[in-house]
């Protein structure tokens, strides 16, 4: 259980009851400020030995082992000829913290706490091991504190810089001042943060499972049509240049059902003018959705506006970059246009569902690799209008297109909801991290949140 916020001013004269001014700013009176080295039983570099990428051997940590704030057992190296004394000296024990002290600045200071998986993990080179004094500091609290310091850029400030990477020496790390609540409060803080983190991890697992479900559904739906999985063997299929499809589906060229139009070239001249209009770049087109977070503008003549204005149902296909990436325009803003690195697909036919073909492009490019070699063989690969028009695509009856869209949209909506939940949990975690580690929000100690 958490108390409500305590608003903590920065001037000593206006400190609320129960707070004191320290070198780290206002902190609760019962908290200490100590050096990181004071709470460490051990800090050391890892074993420097040649590693292999696969077994046999014992798993050994690498820089890549720290992934998404945890130890990833799939991203380890292996050493097969370790001596017993090496195993004893470098084997991690539960509660050890791996700290990335040599890395590029965006990754400097990443940490992960060893929780016993894999059962044997050897501490490898290029990561520091931090082992706290358990009678003085909770390892989970210490790990979350390093998360906060990394978010504040403190580790980057400590680092020495070289070409392509930065490093932090042990002396500077050990001299770092840190807040230290009483041990029961440390454990309670860590429990709250871990609870939020576990909820986020559970949400990430749901999202990953939904992504796999969508892949399986697309494979099934674009092969057998919108029939239940247990009836797939009853569908009469035919072999085509795009793989097996239901006997009654047609195969046509994309240019037969869509008008294809590239957008306007961005030039220094178009950067200024009296008709500045928003336009989409390839960066705005993601798989299955348009991202309007960063929207640019350029000058469009009246004739260009008429020709290049987007309408609801237009498909936008990336000509360069992630070639083939496709999303549908849903009229989010009006007017809106697009640049020449995007192809606009528009149909006037009543038997065509644009959303069906948005999903088809996703499946064809990323699952079936049907059009993988379709880019022009130039220094910078690109997808020409003529090549795009020549793509073979399925043409089911409209009712089946719509049913396939309905099924896949249901999965997308569930994923969007889970991704929104993940973003909310991320924001909650960051807020609690800052407030709990500064004492602005206090935690009541209970047997549930102070036991380990």
Major sheet attributes: 4 strands, antiparallel
Helix-residue proportion: 25-40%
How does the overall form come out from the CA principal axes? Answer: elongated
The number of domains is 3
Low-confidence stretches: 374-379
Total helix count? 11
Strand content: 15-25%
Total number of strands: 28
Distance between the termini: 17 Å
| The CATH topology of the largest domain | Adenine-n6-DNA-methyltransferase TaqI, Chain A, domain 2
Q: What is the CATH-assigned architecture of the largest domain?
A: Alpha-Beta Complex
Mean pLDDT: 93
| CATH class term of the largest domain | Alpha Beta
Classified in CATH, the superfamily of the largest domain is DNA methylase specificity domains
**Class from helix and strand fractions:** alpha+beta
Keywords:
Adenine-n6-DNA-methyltransferase TaqI, Chain A, domain 2; 21% strand; single chain; 28 strands; 452 residues; 11 helices; alpha+beta
Topology summary:
Elements: E1 19-22, E2 25-28, E3 32-35, E4 40-44, E5 58-60, E6 66-67, E7 70-71, E8 77-79, H1 84-90, E9 97-99, E10 102-103, E11 111-113, E12 128-132, H2 139-151, H3 154-158, E13 160-162, E14 165-167, H4 170-174, E15 177-180, H5 183-224, E16 237-238, E17 245-246, E18 250-253, H6 254-257, E19 259-262, E20 276-280, E21 285-286, E22 289-290, E23 296-299, H7 302-308, E24 315-318, E25 326-328, E26 337-338, E27 342-346, H8 354-367, H9 385-390, E28 392-395, H10 398-438, H11 447-450
Parallel strand pairs: 20-26
Antiparallel strand pairs: 1-2, 3-15, 4-12, 5-8, 6-7, 9-11, 9-12, 10-14, 13-14, 16-17, 18-28, 19-27, 20-23, 21-22, 24-25, 24-27
Helix pairs in contact: 2-10, 5-8, 5-10
